[in-house]
Here is the input.
Amino acid sequence: MEKIFIGNNLLEKLTKLFDFGRFSKIAILTDTNVAKHWLLTVKRSLKQKTSEIIIKPGEKFGKNIETVKNIWKKMFEFGLDRKSLLINLGGGVICDIGGFSASTFMRGIEFLNIPTTLLAQVDASVGGKTGIDFEEIKNAIGVFKKPTAVIINVATLKTLPKRELISAFGEIIKHGVISGREHFNLVTSKKPEEFNQSELITIIKQSVKIKSEIVKKDPKEISGLRKVLNFGHTIGHAIESLSWKTDRPLLHGEAVAIGMIAESQLANQIGMLAETETQLISQSVIRVGLPSKIKNIKSEDIVKMILSDKKNIRGEILFSLPERIGKVIPNVKIIDKKIKKIINYFN
Here is the structure.
């Protein structure tokens, strides 16, 4: 299990949290946006020589094999060896692509995540999934590899745009649907921007605990238990990828939010989820400020994208659907006609 540190002002005392001295070299991967705010703080805190790899921000253009090739090239130029460390400083894209680059460089070097967005703090930075997008399919290529440590510093959220803060609650509400009423009621009790720093630390700790306990029992999705974390993602990933071609691309949490509403409706239609629970999930997503509709995306394109989902087996479309708030069932087979009917409702 990776070491996870959660709190405030942690970037100023990194060496007190983790032994960086045992590595031959250290490189920091970040993007141009995060570098302006936090790169210097991290470098000063480490108190040793580091090399920096700075890429363009965003998933639409950066989370691909070409970017990975450039990262590998820099790692070779900097003379990194198998005893080196890659620090991923940034949001979900940086954690995903950095973890994948480190896990495949020289057959694998250690990496440490410092997630700077709320979404990355509760999702991409923990759990050991790394990867890149390929041929417009989200996270199609990747490996399971846990970071050596995760350092979650809530102070970084001060520089986070409001839309990205709200977007993260797509994943946070998902954790509530999976785990039960206590977390669900807490995270939907008010708007994301109304939570103070102490409350956010509590929410992050609970979300990380929920995900970590599931991952611990099924780290590589072999037993199927980990698949409950995919609630909202089968439809969500499809519309997220397709939205990149429009003039209004969705953030990951926004797509997951729409996916949760759609998949809850799907569960309701096949008799799994009660109408009261279906409405509660939908209303809670909308109340925190997340979107509930998709625009400028054809339903047939969404179905086509879903058919290429990596979670499908032998051509069967598999969903993780809620039976109630607190219980999500993985590997529910759904025919594409039912999917199209639900998607048409949200267009």
User: Anything to note?
Assistant: The first helix runs from residue 14 to 17. The first strand starts at residue 3 and ends at 7. Strands lie at 3-7, 26-31, 51-55, 85-90, 110-115, 132-134, 137-141, 149-153, 318-324, 327-333.
